[in-house]
TrEMBL record, chain A:
InterPro entries: Cytochrome_b-558, SQR/QFR_C/D. It comes from Pontibacter lucknowensis. One of its GO terms (cellular component) is membrane. The chain crosses the membrane at residues 16-40, 60-80, 110-129, 163-182, 202-227. This is Succinate dehydrogenase / fumarate reductase cytochrome b subunit. The keyword DNA-binding does not apply. SUPFAM superfamilies: Fumarate reductase respiratory complex transmembrane subunits. Keywords: Membrane, Transmembrane, Transmembrane helix.
Amino acid sequence: MNWFTKTFSSTIGRKIIMSITGLFLCSFLVVHLIGNLTLFKGDDGVTFNLYSHFMANNPIIRTMEIVLVLGFVFHIYDALVLTRRNKAARPVGYAENHPQENSTWSSRNMGLLGTVILVFLIIHLWNFFVPARFGAAGGLEGVVIENVDYDNLYLKVVQSFQIWWYVLIYVISMIALAYHLIHGFQSAFQSLGLTHKKYTPFIKTFGVVFSIAVCFGFAIIPIYFFFAA
Amino acid sequence: MAGSNPNAKPMDLTLKIWRQKDRNTAGQLVTYPLKNISPDMSFLEMLDVLNEELLVRGEEPVAFDHDCREGICGMCSLFINGRAHGPERGTTTCQLHMRHFNHGDTITIEPWRAAAFPVHKDLIVDRSAFDRIQQAGGYVSVNTGGVPDANEIPIPKTIADKAFDAATCIGCGACVAACKNASAMLFVSAKVSQLAMLPQGKVEAKTRAENMVAQMDVEGFGACSNTGACAAECPVGISLDNIAMLNREYLGAKASSENV
C-alpha cells in the first residue's frame, strides 16, 4: 500500500472520510430542504414542478448527483468497515455495563440511527426519485405549465402524504436523522481535529440547532400535507 | 485506625467475580459472600480480605493487578458494577473506598474487555499492547553529551500546562475498557500530544504520530466514535482535546512527512 491508501485505511483516516462525507451530506440536506420549501408556495405546485424539472435536467446538478451518490457510498462503506472493526475489538462483552453514565445514547448508536436513515432513503428514493428520474414505479402524471409539459411531482407528493403510515415513517426517520446529526455534526469537527476553545462551543451549539431545524423542516412537509387534505 | 470513622458500621456484601484459569480457558462469574467489611477499606483491601478467606479455605485466591495503591502507577484496573474503576469519577480502583457501597450490595467485578487486552488470569489482563504503542514512538531521542541547563529552552506556561495535563496519563487502560469500541485513542492521544506540544518532542512529531497510530491499529483496538466515555471514566481526567490534537497531528504527518 502507498502512503495515501495506508492513511485512509487507518482508523483515524476512515474517521476523516466519515467526517468529510458527513459534512458534505449535511450541505446536501440544506439544498434539499430549501428546494422542498417551494411546496408551501400555494400555487398548486407550479414552482415545485419547475424546480424539480430543473433538478432532473440541469447538467451541473446531474454531475453533483454523482458526487452525492459517492458521498453516500463512502460514508456507508466506511461505517460498515469501522463497525466490523469496532465489534471485533471487544469479542467478549461485560456482564454488567452502564454506558449511560459516561456517554449519550445517540453517540453510541450512530450505526443504528444510520441504518434507519438508510432504510428511509431507499423508501424515499423509490417513492419520489425513481418515478421522477426514470419514469419507473408507475411514473408520474403530466401537467401543463405555460403551454409546456412537465412531470407532476407535486401531485405525487400530495397523494403520498395522504397515507398515515407513510407520514409516520417520514416523521420517525427525521427524528432518527436529528439524533444522528446532533452527535455527528460536532463529532465531525473533532475527527478532523478542528477544535479550539474559541470556536468549539459555537460549533456544538450550532450543530444542535442545525440538526433540529433541518429535520423539523423536512418532517413538517408530510405533516402539513396530511392535515391540509 | 487513625482517621477511621467510629460510627461506620461493617457491611456484608455479595461479590460476583470473573474467574478464569488462564488465557486459553473459558471463564465465568463466581459468587462469593463476604461479611464484616469496613467502609474505611479501599476496594483492593476488600479483595485482600476475600483472598485471605479463600486461602484459609484452601481455594485459589482471586488474581488482580495492583502496585502503588496511591492512584499514580496505573496498575490497578477492574470493571466494577458496569463502570471502569467503579462508580466514582476521577478515581482509580485503589483509591475507591467501600463507603461508596452499601450493606447488602451485590458487586460485579470484571476484567477490562478488549481483544487487545487478553485476560491472563481472573481479573488480570495483558496490557503490553500499550507498551508496544509507546515503543513505536512515545519517546524523545536524545544524543548523549553534557547535561543541558534546566529551562534552557523557553516554553510558554500555557503550553507547559497542557503538555503536563496530557503527561498525567497513567496508562491504566480505563479508556479502552469504557469505550464501546475498545478504542485506545485517548491513551495514544495523550502520549502523542504530550510530546508534540513541547519543542523537544516536535523534532520527531511526524514519525511519532504515524508510528504510534499504526501500532494502535495493529494491536486491534477499535476506532474513535467521539462518545466521550473514555474521558468521563479516565481516573486522571485526560481531555478529549488530546484526541482532536492526535487527529490533527496524524493527518498533518501523513500529508507532509518524509515516509512515502
